[in-house]
Amino acid sequence: MKTLTILGSTGSIGRQTLDVVSHAEGRLKIYALAADKNVRLMEEQARLFQPEVVVMMDEPAASDLRGRLRDLPIKVAQGMEGIINSVVAEKVDIVVTALSGRVGLEPTLSAIAAGKTIALANKETLVAGGDLVMSAAEKNGCKILPVDSEHSAIFQCLEESPETIEKIILTASGGPFFGWTKEKLDTVTLEKALCHPNWEMGAKITIDSSTMMNKGLEVIEAHHLFALEYDAIEVLIHPQSVIHSMVEYQDGSVLAQLGRPDMRLPIQYALSYPTRWKNPFERLNLRGKTLTFHEPDFEAFPALALAYQVGRRGGTLPAVMNAANEVVVLAFLQKKVSYPAIINIVKKVCSEHYVLDNLDLGSILDADNWARQRAEELISGF
Ligand SMILES: NC(=O)C1=CN([C@@H]2O[C@H](COP(=O)(O)OP(=O)(O)OC[C@H]3O[C@@H](n4cnc5c(N)ncnc54)[C@H](OP(=O)(O)O)[C@@H]3O)[C@@H](O)[C@H]2O)C=CC1
Ligand SMILES: CC(=O)[C@@H](O)[C@H](O)COP(=O)(O)O
Ligand SMILES: [Mn+2]
């Protein structure tokens, strides 16, 4: 039996994780669930999964939930303190990090300091603080198990001697606008950007997939997870999202992981690691299927090239790019900025940043805060 805390239980990954738990035949138990404001769904999840603790980041949401759950012996905590307590608790074996955004960095570092295994979906945490996270994990002997589908695929293709890797190939669907020209991309609406061709995901990552910033974040995520130079991380457009990524070894052999676009598979893989559990989920059927592959269009989708430049520069710059992107994507979701403004503002914030290389949590959070404020100023100026 493995005991979990799920950070972001009411979100897309969080809900699918609970579905995996319900199919795990008693091998997974929930200690705590955490979210921000979605009280109605958290109440439903609490009643169904009976965790010891539920946490709402938002304090009014926490007091609302306290009233709704007064008939149950479930502790209702709040704020970042409540989230951190939910991951360091003695009973917890694995923390599923499925918060959206850099907010997951501190709880992830706290969970690692407490010796927990991390099932990591929350890629912004690695983009902003990957050096801190991976060195803390090494120091504490903690496993970081990737949940992000491409990184799970790479992890599943790793052999005993990872030093024989020549490169990894991150596949990308190309998003809803694959093949569009820069001019046509100026006409994108929020409704169109929220329609991912293959995956049902949360709003932020769906917009990031449309600009290809998601793939840029994943390049930086892979750099940290697999200790790879950026020259050894290639992106290949694969519109069908059947091959979730590939590893090319120094003898020229390429291993790939395939599956239906169903996040329960990488989630279950991480939670059952190092075994593979059976499940009743629909199987991949390749009969009659055509798989195609294309070069990324770095011109039309500048976010990908920016992420490579930012990742190579390192220091506090990745945290700045990520923070600016979080702010501008939220503004786009609120229809406050145009689609082209997303990458234009992120690029401008990155260009103005004085990069620091002494990476501690304070410098990362300061850079993150500066970037958020600067992005907000540019949005109001747009
Ligand atoms: N969805 C997917 O298929 C994939 C997602 N990922 C990554 O996984 C992470 C989660 O993505 P996804 O599930 O789509 O996101 P969603 O937006 O669907 O869910 C986000 C979750 O985090 C909670 N949350 C958001 N902000 C805060 C906060 N400040 N404090 C506490 N809780 C917060 C939300 O709570 P509430 O509901 O109360 O707002 C919700 O439970 C992201 O980093 C994403 O990039 C990676 C690969 C695939
Ligand atoms: C399911 C998952 O892992 C997402 O990151 C997805 O891969 C996004 O698809 P894109 O390839 O379009 O960015
Ligand atoms: Mn992914």
Task: Report on this structure.
- It contains 16 helices and eleven strands.
- With 382 residues, the protein is of the alpha/beta class.
- The chain has three domains: 2-146, Rossmann fold (3-Layer(aba) Sandwich), CATH 3.40.50.720; 150-261 and 283-311, no CATH class; 314-382, RNA polymerase sigma factor, region 2, helix turn helix motif (Rna Polymerase Sigma Factor, Chain: A, Orthogonal Bundle).
- It has a seven-stranded parallel sheet, sandwiched between helices.
- A hairpin with a 4-residue loop joins strand 10 (243-249) and strand 11.
- Helix 6 (123-140) runs antiparallel to helix 14 (317-333) and helix 11 packs parallel to helix 13.
- Residues 148-150, 218 line the site of manganese (II) ion.
- Residues 258-373 form the DXP reductoisomerase C-terminal domain.
Can you give me a brief rundown of this structure?
The protein is 47% helix and 15% strand. The protein has 382 residues and is α/β, with parallel strands linked by helices.
Element layout with pairings:
Elements: E1 2-7, H1 12-22, E2 28-35, H2 39-49, E3 53-56, H3 59-68, E4 75-78, H4 79-88, E5 94-97, H5 105-113, E6 117-120, H6 123-140, E7 144-146, H7 149-157, E8 165-172, H8 182-185, H9 190-193, H10 203-211, H11 213-225, E9 233-237, E10 243-249, E11 254-258, H12 264-272, H13 302-313, H14 317-333, H15 339-352, H16 361-381
Parallel strand pairs: 1-2, 1-5, 2-3, 3-4, 5-6, 6-7, 8-9
Antiparallel strand pairs: 8-10, 10-11
Helix pairs in contact: 2-3, 4-5, 5-6, 6-11, 6-14, 10-14, 11-13, 14-15, 14-16, 15-16
This protein binds NADPH dihydro-nicotinamide-adenine-dinucleotide phosphate, 1-deoxy-D-xylulose-5-phosphate and manganese (II) ion (MN).
